[in-house]
Structures are given as structure tokens and as C-alpha cells.
Specification:
Blueprint: H1 3-16, H2 25-33, E1 40-48, H3 65-82, E2 86-92, E3 106-112, H4 115-123, H5 125-137, E4 138-147
Antiparallel strand pairs: 1-3, 1-4, 2-3
Helix pairs in contact: 1-2, 3-5
Length: 151
């Protein structure tokens, strides 16, 4: 891995941490191994907290998990567009159709022209400034990536 990629990886893990709702260092690093010119989609499964849990130092008004998530989305959506991406779907989970029952609150599908564009969202200063709303809102977050144009 080049020193610039190592530096970016160090910055990502330092800012976001690697708790259960964020990529591990190996998962972040995997993004560098994806085909550089392939479109990337992220399917996100989100379980919200009933009440947002802000750190006392954040001085945010009380909010439900959904309200905090909307604060995050009000910044993340335009920031994704600014780096060439889009959220193709943000919707309420309606249950599993195939397989075991699931208990998510939201399903979010993001699309970015390349893995580098996707990564650039996470280093965007405005996105990072709003990220505490996501952290406060979310009980559990899983994301699955796909590359290419399946047709």
C-alpha cells in the first residue's frame, strides 16, 4: 500500500474509529483493492436508537434516533452529490421477503462512480462535521458493497 493510502487509512480509522458500526481497518483497506474505475454501490441496513445518544460535549438538543438521522442526512445527501454520488433509496424497512426475519429500521442504497469517490465522502469536512448525528442516531449499521454495472 502506498504511503498516501496508508495515511488516508490512518486518518479514516482515527476519525471514525473501528467500532461495530464502522469499517475495520481491513475493511477500509479493502476499498483500495476494488477496481479503480468500477461504480460502487453500498446497501446499508440501519437500526436506530429510540433516543439519540449525543456526547455531553456535543450540546445537541434531545432528539429521537430518526430525528438525529435526519440531521445527518441533511448534510450527507448533498455532500454525496458533491463528490459525484447519490443515495438512490432511503426507505423504511418493510421486512424480509426471502430468508430469516430481519429487524432494521432503514435501508439506504448509495451509488458512487468509483471507490475513490466513495472514500472522498468520508474525508469531506462538512460530512465529518455532521457525522456525530449519525453516531448518536444509530444502534447498529451494516453495509454491503457491490461494484460494476449489473444488467
Amino acid at each position: 500500500m502506498s504511503s498516501s493510502k496508508e495515511s488516508l487509512l490512518a486518518n479514516l480509522t482515527s476519525f471514525y474509529g473501528t467500532d461495530r458500526n464502522m469499517p475495520t481497518a481491513d475493511q477500509w483497506a479493502h476499498l483500495f483493492d476494488l477496481p479503480a474505475d468500477a461504480p460502487i454501490a453500498a446497501v446499508n441496513y440501519v437500526k436506530l436508537r429510540a433516543q439519540a445518544q449525543y456526547a455531553p460535549s456535543e450540546k445537541e438538543p434531545e432528539a429521537t434516533g430518526l430525528e438525529a438521522m435526519m440531521r445527518y442526512s441533511s448534510v450527507s445527501t448533498p455532500r454525496a452529490a458533491a463528490v459525484g454520488g447519490a443515495f438512490l433509496l432511503t426507505g423504511f424497512h418493510q421486512g424480509a421477503v426471502i430468508g430469516p426475519a430481519t429487524d432494521w429500521d432503514l435501508i439506504i442504497i448509495g451509488h458512487f462512480p468509483t471507490p475513490a469517490d466513495y472514500l472522498s465522502l468520508f474525508v469531506d469536512p462538512d460530512y465529518q462535521a455532521a457525522f456525530h448525528h449519525r453516531r448518536a442516531a444509530v444502534e447498529t449499521w451494516h453495509a454491503v458493497l457491490s461494484t460494476g454495472n449489473a444488467a
